[in-house]
Amino acid sequence: MKVAVYPGSFDPITNGHLDILNRACSLFDKVIVLVANNPHKSSNFSVEDRVEMIKEAVNNNPKIEVTSDSGLTVEFAKKHGATHLIRGLRAVSDFEYEFQLASANEFIDSKIDTVFLMARGDKTFISSSSIITMAKQGVDVSKLVPASVLKRLK
Ligand code: ADP
């Protein structure tokens, strides 16, 4: 069984994240969505809320598990029998950060590889922070986030 971990802040999850997640599900038998629990980073939603919003959005897909952890992603992956990490790439601006992160993870454990999926054209502008900004200004974001997020933004 091929298992991958899709780590991120998911603060909150967007349709951009969900697109990457669904595409990862066609490549792996199981995908574990890992919400990073970083108490030093300020967030819009609590870890518990972020996990709950993702669980509601994936709607009992048997291939997907959702959890949170505050440790190293590669250690989590190893412990759960995962061989790959999933990350999404939007603009060139994502590249530098993602390349550094993937290289650091490779340094920690070269057996865990990172797989990058390119954002779909219509989702390249979606980020958790842009959702928060637009929602605060009263923009209708219903086409950009799942219903579980929309109801909490209101
Ligand atoms: P992090 O704080 O770890 O970067 P994010 O929740 O912001 O967590 O993002 C998690 C992953 O999902 C990152 O690899 C990011 O590039 C990717 N991602 C975020 N938004 C999109 C999108 N609209 N399309 C494709 N990938 C995305």
Keywords:
single chain, 154 residues, alpha/beta, Rossmann fold, five-stranded parallel beta sheet, 6 helices, binds adenosine-5'-diphosphate
Radius of gyration equals 15 Å
Examine the secondary-structure arrangement and name the CATH architecture. 3-Layer(aba) Sandwich
What name goes with the CATH superfamily? Answer: HUPs
Judging from the principal axes of the Cα atoms, what is the shape? globular
Write down the CATH class.
Alpha Beta
Kindly estimate the percentage of residues that lie in beta strands according to DSSP.
Answer: 15-25%
H-E order:
EHEHEHEHEHH
Average pLDDT over all residues = 97
Number of DSSP helical runs: 6
SSE topology:
Elements: E1 3-8, H1 15-25, E2 30-36, H2 47-58, E3 64-69, H3 73-79, E4 84-89, H4 92-108, E5 113-118, H5 128-136, H6 147-153
Parallel strand pairs: 1-2, 1-4, 2-3, 4-5
The structure holds adenosine-5'-diphosphate (ADP).
